[in-house]
Specification:
The chain has 592 residues and is an all-alpha fold. The chain contains 31 helices and no strands. The radius of gyration is 35 Å and the shape is extended. 37% of the residues are buried.
Length: 592
């Protein structure tokens, strides 16, 4: 018999694009180490010596549990600290921080409001409370906290700007303007003040004043191209595209190589659906080596959004080549090219490019994984073995690499080497039952092909226990049991479960039919074999041979010979098949 399933990896999870995955990084709240000794402003709360020692011990333990990310445990410990000393603002601060991490901003707000009441002069308490108020969209309260911070830390000018910005968000525009005007009288015309005022005027519909603020900024520094960009954006907001373009062109007069303005003009033309004009400016921006790659990548992603026709395929490739040439030492443009080639179903070319990516950056697991999966798509088992071996030198703890290496070794019938690799892979896959199940499946396959049948079936039992939905393994297990004529009732139950979950899979139906054949239930075998044949898009030589075997035992010998000859004509290399045709009778295949 010819084995029916090739163990090519079909991963159940989708690969993310290699390049510039958009992600939000959780900002950790800046924490200052808080002394567990009471600040001078804390409410007096006398503790006995024993209570003080217990408090200090528990506080340190709470910090330790928080560090270990055992947040619930830390909260319990800090709660006990507050039972001992209800006036400990440091404990309230630590608990509030944990609630922020857990996303409970109501509880954290209650705790920090109490903490600043006990210790009103600690700037870190007010800063945390500002963050909490912002999360709860209490912008006016947050602005009030910055007012306190301005008093506590007058040397930090940023606090007053933040106060004005929060007042703007709270709708207190007159108060915010008053602060900006006071600052301007002291500091003169600055970008942050003028932009802050312009935003308020735009928000309140006073467009004349909004334009005046930016023009005042330009008059203060007429050679600064950024300010013309601000004015251009303001004109775009007010639907005055002609004036916007006029100001963008002023930037180019000041600095013709400004990559950002070329992208801004490109965005302008894209909005007006003038894609060819946009493309010319995009090319100029992409050729600018001083413009950062991330900004260019954002534009590239905008251009290739699904369902849009902003650029042609030829233009897409041209832009990628420009990026590769301009950022020759950065692997990411080549990684973008890999994505393009994969989407265009050019795996061989994608793999060549992927190797160039790894020449630049070998310490990226994501890149190695993509290369190995391309080998898998190309059924290139020799490369799979060589590349996975290299990948393991960089990432010896990554279980998927062991899975992919095992696939290559299994396909090359290097079973002894496969068993060695699997032992290491199993060690690194213990926390992932799905991958562990795959590795054990390959181990069972290796044992079976080495004629170590008992070990093979023992491991298959473990596979089914680990992953009751590993249908490919269950199918092969049932098939192998039927070939050996062992535990046919168990083989039938397993195969039935596989069929129930995959009723249209011809290979699985073939196995089910073959189990019935081995049980001498030829009518059911014929039923399921004909069902299998109806599910294949084109005839399978193996299924046709099996169908002939079944017909022979149903006393339809003439038609059985017809099916065997058809299987042979389809390229079935089985020597036994030729003997059947010659002898005009069924001859059992001896496996191993």
């Amino acid at each position: 018999m010819i084995k029916k399933i090739k163990y090519i990896v079909y991963l159940l999870f989708a690969l993310s694009p290699i390049f510039f995955t958009s992600c939000k990084v959780k900002k950790e709240i800046s924490e200052k180490v808080v002394s567990i000794k009471k600040d001078s402003t804390d409410t007096e709360f006398k503790l006995s010596e024993d209570a003080r020692k217990e408090f200090e011990y528990l506080f340190i333990e709470g910090i330790k549990q928080r560090t270990f990310e055992n947040y619930d445990g830390a909260i319990k410990i800090f709660s006990r600290c507050l039972e001992i000393d209800p006036s400990s603002s440091a404990t309230l601060y630590e608990m509030a921080n944990i609630h922020v991490i857990k996303g409970d901003f109501q509880s954290s707000m209650f705790l920090m409001e109490k903490a600043v009441t006990i210790n009103p002069d600690n700037q870190y308490y007010h800063l945390l409370l500002v963050k909490i108020y912002q999360q709860n969209k209490l912008f006016e309260k947050a602005a009030s906290e910055y007012e306190t911070l301005v008093r506590l830390v007058p040397v930090n000018p940023d606090y007053i700007f933040y106060q004005a910005a929060l007042l703007t968000m709270a709708g207190k525009t007159n108060e915010a303007l008053a602060i900006y005007n006071q600052l301007e009288s002291r500091m003169g015309i600055t970008e942050s003040i003028s932009v802050g005022k312009q935003q308020i005027y735009t928000q309140t519909g006073n467009n004349t004043a909004a334009f005046a603020e930016i023009e005042k900024l330009i008059n203060s520094s007429p050679s600064n191209p950024k300010y013309y960009g601000l004015l251009a954006e303001l004109y775009l907001t007010n639907k005055n595209r002609e004036k916007a373009l006029e100001n963008y062109n002023k930037i180019l007069e000041i600095d013709p190589k400004d990559g950002f303005v070329h992208l801004s003009i490109a965005s302008y033309y894209i909005e007006g659906k003038e894609f060819e004009k946009a493309y010319e400016h995009i090319k100029l921006a992409f050729k600018n080596s001083e413009l950062d790659l991330e900004t260019k990548a954002q534009m590239y992603m905008l251009l290739i959004e699904p369902g849009t026709n902003k650029i042609s395929e030829e233009q897409q490739v041209e832009l990628l080549k420009i990026l590769i040439e301009t950022h020759i030492d950065d692997e990411r443009p080549r990684a973008l090219m890999v994505d393009y080639l994969i989407n265009k179903k050019q795996p061989e070319e994608a793999r060549k490019e992927m190797r160039l990516v790894l020449d630049i950056k070998k310490d990226s697991y994501m890149y190695w994984e993509r290369l190995l999966l391309l080998n898998n798509d190309l059924l290139d088992w020799k490369s799979m073995n060589e590349d996975s071996k290299k990948a393991l030198t960089y990432f010896p703890d990554q279980p998927l690499i062991y899975v992919l290496r095992s696939v290559g070794l299994l396909q090359q019938k290097r079973y002894d080497e496969l068993l060695t690799v699997l032992d290491s892979g199993v060690v690194h896959s213990k926390n992932d039952p799905k991958l562990l199940s795959q590795l054990y499946t390959y181990k069972a396959e290796a044992f079976y092909n080495l004629a170590r049948f008992k070990e093979a079936f023992d491991v298959f039992d473990k596979v089914v226990e680990l992953d009751p939905e590993n249908f490919m393994a269950m199918n092969n297990y049932a098939y192998y049991l039927s070939l050996k004529g062992e535990r046919l009732d168990i083989a039938e139950k397993m195969s039935a479960k596989v069929i129930q979950a995959n009723p249209d899979n011809a290979t699985y139906l073939d196995t089910y039919a073959w189990v019935f054949f081995k049980k001498k239930d030829y009518d059911l075998a014929k039923f399921y074999m004909e069902n299998a044949l109806s599910k294949v898009s084109e005839d399978s030589a193996v299924l046709i041979e099996h169908y002939g075997d079944i017909l022979f035992f149903l006393n339809d010998k003439q038609n059985a010979i017809v099916q065997w000859k058809k299987s042979l004509e389809m390229g079935n290399p089985s020597k036994i098949l030729k003997q059947k045709i010659s002898a005009k009778k069924y001859i059992e295949t001896k496996e191993n």
